[in-house]
Amino acid sequence: MLRAVGFNDNDFHKPIIGIANGYSTITPCNLGLNDLTRRAEIALRQAGAMPQTFGTITVSDGISMGTEGMKYSLVSREVIADAIETACNAQSMDGLLAIGGCDKNMPAAMLAMARMNIPAVFIYGGTIKPGKLGNCDLTVVSSFEAVGQITSGKIDEAQLNNIEKHACPGAGSCGGMFTANTMSAVIETMGLSLPYSSTMAAEDVDKVENAVNSAKVLVKAVEKNIRPLDLLTREAFENAISVIMALGGSTNAVLHLLAIARTAGVSLSINDFETIRQRVPVICDLKPSGRFVTVDLHKAGGIPQVMKILLEGGLLHGTCRNIEGKTLIDVLADVPSVPNQTQEVIRTLSNPLYVKGHLAVLKGNLAQEGSVAKISGVKNPSITGPAKVFESEESCLSAIINGYIKEGDIIVIRNEGPIGGPGMREMLSPTSAIIGCGLGDKVALITDGRFSGGTYGMVVGHVAPEAAVGGTIALVQNGDSITVDASKLLIQLNVSTDEIERRRSNWEVSLPSYHKGVLSKYMRLVSSSSKGAVTDA
């Protein structure tokens, strides 16, 4: 059968490398992956390996956002990881070159790499270039915020159409430091993709060169037997969290790193993010809450420049190794200790945007297992107010657009967790509408669902235990007083313990009616978000 697909007598002693190709026209994030796959395949053959290409799926979070389809987004992480594991292990492949673009492609590939532990490299499809409207840089989030702006009368229909038409100019993943670019930075930091590769633009020639070089490096890694679990150490995870904090990255990184660590057999908890947050400042001025996009970060020195600053400040473990076998100290040896003074994207440790990291872990009677708040750009770190409770994202969005939400409200969206959704949808539509309406600093939003990497403001997600399993968020009633305090790391329902227990005794489980298919399987298998929402526990 191998002869039928092109093997000759001299090929059977060569390493077989699986190329997991996430190409799809469903989303611009994955649009250019076929070209990278073809170039990587040629490079693998030239380097003395036998490439075997197979396809993986993707879900466009931006297109499915705010719809029933978004329930499949986090589920796709498991589907992709399962597919890569199945193809590689079934065919006894010697190495893996995973090529992906949209949000779940990256953590899915990392999960598969950790499960199989064969030499592996990830190739990121690249970031989209910013859309342009006048002098403004646009991203996909600009379109979501424009919905809130038009409902509050800040823009008209023509302006909305202009923003929508210019927000996404071509191929590549969402342009700010949203989830895709955050996770690509994580993989580069942890040594499973090549230096500078995580911030390249999808449509630049650098990306093709990166695919070729990645293929060559992987063949050498197979020869040297350098495996993912050699690299995915506790110290490497700490480095990844430090870089996420420095970048101002996505809340989804918490969920994904917990899942990857569990698969890799590394002890990591949600509390570790808070510990590292206390010592690592935000030094990059990036969207969604900042000014610049990821291509600007690349021009300013990319992830190596950020890592060098952290390394010089004693905030990274320099002995961690990458897929080439080099230590971080070696990789960063020629990177300047101080960023170029002509750029404004990357700051020094002595002049950070925020003196502490932006991903805060909040606990209290509303989230005994924890929750995650993205507090960069938040002007009011503590809000106490009356609860406005919604059982779904759609009902909340309708209330925001129709003016039901007022200054001081605490919005509660529940039954959107891993089990209750199912699938833990991202709440970009309501959070963007809140920003667009001008309420970003005046209200708080809490949910057992997730947030897009494009979300910012006083928002708290990943509330665990979730409503579907009887977490306290299921017991909140309209008008209840709730405190969200990022300074005290507190998320509190201001109701007596006796009243909470009375409500709990009357609570009845109510799950969505998915009785077959992938969502039904997911509901039965998925763990708490505080443990990474994994399905193979």
Layout of SSEs?
Blueprint (H helix, E strand, L loop, with lengths): L15 E6 L11 H14 L3 E6 L5 H4 L8 H18 L4 E6 L4 H12 L3 E5 L6 E3 L2 E3 L1 H12 L5 H10 L12 H11 L15 H20 L3 H4 L2 H14 L4 H13 L5 H8 L16 H6 L2 H11 L15 H4 L27 E6 L2 E8 L7 E9 L2 H9 L8 E4 L14 H9 L7 E4 L11 E6 L16 E5 L4 E4 L3 H10 L10 H9 L12
Helix pairs in contact: 1-8, 3-4, 4-7, 4-11, 5-6, 5-17, 7-10, 10-11, 10-12, 10-14, 16-17
Overview of this protein structure:
The two termini are 36 Å apart. The strands form 3 sheets. The chain has an 8-stranded mixed sheet with strand order 7-8-12-11-10-9-13-14. By secondary structure, the protein is α/β, with parallel strands linked by helices. The chain contains 19 helices and 14 strands. β3, α4 and β4 form a beta-alpha-beta unit. It folds into 2 domains: 284 residues, Rossmann fold; 168 residues, IlvD/EDD C-terminal domain-like (Glucose Oxidase, domain 1, 3-Layer(bba) Sandwich). Keywords: 2Fe-2S, Amino-acid biosynthesis, Branched-chain amino acid biosynthesis, Iron, Iron-sulfur, Lyase, Magnesium, Metal-binding, Plastid. InterPro entries: DHAD_IlvD/Edd (IPR050165), Dihydro-acid_dehy_C (IPR042096), DihydroxyA_deHydtase (IPR004404), DiOHA_6PGluconate_deHydtase_CS (IPR020558), ILV_EDD_C (IPR056740), ILV_EDD_N (IPR000581), IlvD/EDD_N (IPR037237). Its EC number is 4.2.1.9.
